[in-house]
Amino acid sequence: MSTKHFLRGMATVNYFADNVVAARDWYSELFGVEAYFQMPSRDNPAYIEFRVGDDADEFGIIDRKYAPEGMQKAPGGAILLWHVDDIETAFARLKALGATEYDPITKRGETGFVTASVVDPFGNVLGIMYNPHYVELHGA
C-alpha cells in the first residue's frame, strides 16, 4: 500500500493581471518580500514568482494575455485560503492596501475555523483563514 497521496501538496498558485509590474509591486508590499523569479525580465515580466509562508509556497502572477481561453474576467472559481494567525488584522491590511471585500469574515461552526476573502486590485480572489489544524501542524 502506497503512503503517497495522489495530490501531494500545492505546488503553485497562479493569479493573472493585466499589469504584472503593478501586481508584483502590490504583492511585494503585501508579502514583505520581492519576487525571486521574473521572466523574461524584471522590467517587462510576463510571469513572476514569490515564495511565501511556512512551506515557501509558490505564488505566481501571469500576464492575463496568457490566461486560458475560457477563463472568466470576473472574480470567481476556487478560493485558495491562506492561513493567517490574526484574521481581523490580515483582512484590514488587505483592504488598506486596496483589496475589496469578497466574502466577509465568517466563523465556520464552533471549531475555530474562520474565513474571509478579498478581490485584489487585479481581479483575483485571495482567501484567508484562521485554521486550527494548520496551527497544530506548523506551530504558533
Describe the structure.
This protein has three helices and eight strands. Helix content is 21%, strand content 34%. It has two domains: 9-65, Signal recognition particle alu RNA binding heterodimer, srp9/1, CATH 3.30.720.120; 78-140, 2,3-Dihydroxybiphenyl 1,2-Dioxygenase, domain 1, CATH 3.10.180.10. With 140 residues, the chain is an alpha/beta fold. The protein has a four-stranded mixed sheet with strand order 1-4-3-2, covered by helices on one side. A four-stranded mixed sheet has the order 5-8-7-6, covered by helices on one side. It has helices at residues 20-31, 87-96, 132-138, and strands at residues 12-17, 37-39, 47-52, 57-63, 81-83, 100-108, 113-119, 125-130. Strand 3 and strand 4 (57-63) form a beta hairpin.
Write the layout of secondary structure elements.
Blueprint: E1 12-17, H1 20-31, E2 37-39, E3 47-52, E4 57-63, E5 81-83, H2 87-96, E6 100-108, E7 113-119, E8 125-130, H3 132-138
Parallel strand pairs: 1-4, 5-8
Antiparallel strand pairs: 2-3, 3-4, 6-7, 7-8
The H-level CATH homologous superfamily of the largest domain, spelled out, is 2,3-Dihydroxybiphenyl 1,2-Dioxygenase, domain 1
Overall SS class: alpha/beta
Helix content: 10-25%
Main-sheet strand order equals 1-4-3-2
CATH class of the largest domain: Alpha Beta
CATH fold naming of the largest domain = 2,3-Dihydroxybiphenyl 1,2-Dioxygenase, domain 1
Strand and helix order: EHEEEEHEEEH
Q: Give the low-confidence spans.
A: none
Architecture per CATH nomenclature, i.e. the level-2 architecture of the largest domain: Roll
| Rg from alpha-carbon coordinates | 16 Å
Main sheet, how many strands, which sense, barrel?
4 strands, mixed
- Give the termini distance in whole angstroms: 33 Å
Please report the number of helical segments.
Answer: 3
Proportion of strand residues: 25-35%
| Shape annotation | globular
Mean pLDDT: 94
- The tally of beta strands, per DSSP, is 8
Number of separate domains:
2
